[in-house]
Amino acid sequence: MSKLAIIGGSPVRNTKTNPWPAWPVWDKNEERALIETLRSGIWSYNGPVETKFNNMYAEFNGVKYALSAANGTVTLQMALEACGIGLGDEVILPGLTWQATAATVLDVNATPVLVDVCDDSWCIDPEKVREAISPRTKAVIPVHLYGSFADMDEIMNIAREHNLFVIEDCAHKHGGEWKGKKAGSIGDIGSFSFQLSKILTAGEGGALTTNSFNLFERLDALRNCGRRPEPSGTEKADKGAGLYFDEGNFLQSGNYRITEFQAAVLIEGLKRLPEQNRLREENASYLNSLLKEIPGISLMKEDKRETGKAYYNFSFRYKRTEFRDLPLAKFRSALSAELGIEIAPSYFPLNKCSLYAPLTKPSRHKLNEDYWKEIDPARFDLPVCDRIYSEESVCVHHKVLMSAKSDMDMFADAVRKVRINAESLLSR
Q1: pLDDT tier at 238 (50, 70, 90 boundaries)?
Q2: Mean of the pLDDT values across residues 367-395?
Q3: pLDDT digits (tens, 9 = 90+) for 331-365
Q4: Between the CA atoms of 135, 133, 217 and 259, what dihedral angle is there, to the nearest 10 degrees?
Q5: Which end of the chain has the lower number of beta carbons within 10 A, N or C?
């Protein structure tokens, strides 16, 4: 093949004449909905558009309740608070995730316990969860990462055995299914992000899903300045569960609501999501069939229990010995130049992540000397997370999967081109 684009050759894809699909996706339906909301004069605070989206999202996910909130970070924090988790409690989560998954545990004064992940899915390793359980463990947060699903069978078995809450971090998994159940409907609470890069987006925003009326009522109050929601239907809370309001109609909290404008955009995005997920799944399957024939490329685990795919990123694993010992960073850069799109690593392991830095805020997190030591992320050993980030991970934005099938051939051609010409990069 011709000279690599990164050293002056022609790229496999000229994005000036053949751009990748745009993200986010919008059209006249969003314009109409936003104008209608503007003219209504109802812009926030439990408005009819937000209520409609919540109902749609609950139905879409097959749960009794869905609540919108400001972003996917506060939804995790609210989920922990709703479960009564706080000082003295431990929460187990994977060491390979966005820093907010762990930071929200700090924000409720609990202790994040970081464990390693499975090398073929990059999701939390159930055996490492078992090893990390202590008498103080109160919850597990499995993260469905990039295009993979955490092993929810094992996670739920462990949780039942040890009486733990399960909070699913579904920021990457809108519409994904495990044995016919949607992400966010399997654990006690599902937490979603609608940040700009996510496959359902309003620029910012988040949502919570649950089948528990107790948790729903508490979550609703937590998102709405502590106001107790108005009773609806004939459902009654189980006061013996310890999650109900102690007295009166209020609960200490803040304002984590979204606006009617965001809800209007989300309604239209949700209508498109099933077809977008279908297209991404179809193209990912085809691209995987091409990549598996290239030496040095390993695919992410295909689990038959995952009955519906949802791709935040398309990812695969790289083995440098099959690419003339080309370092991973150089491979990513070369592939990016060929395709005209960012090729990224996985998240940084949290025990070494500059954005997850609890010890930079002693005025907030130094509750006592023991707690200060417990929350130091450097105390955790995460060899699989570290290997994934530094030696193996290759990730690309999901919009690549929203292109034509022929573009998947182009993607595979670019990988082959880098492999054939890898030696030309070794001295650079």
Answers
A1: very low
A2: 98
A3: 999 999 999 999 999 999 999 999 999 999 999 99
A4: 140
A5: C
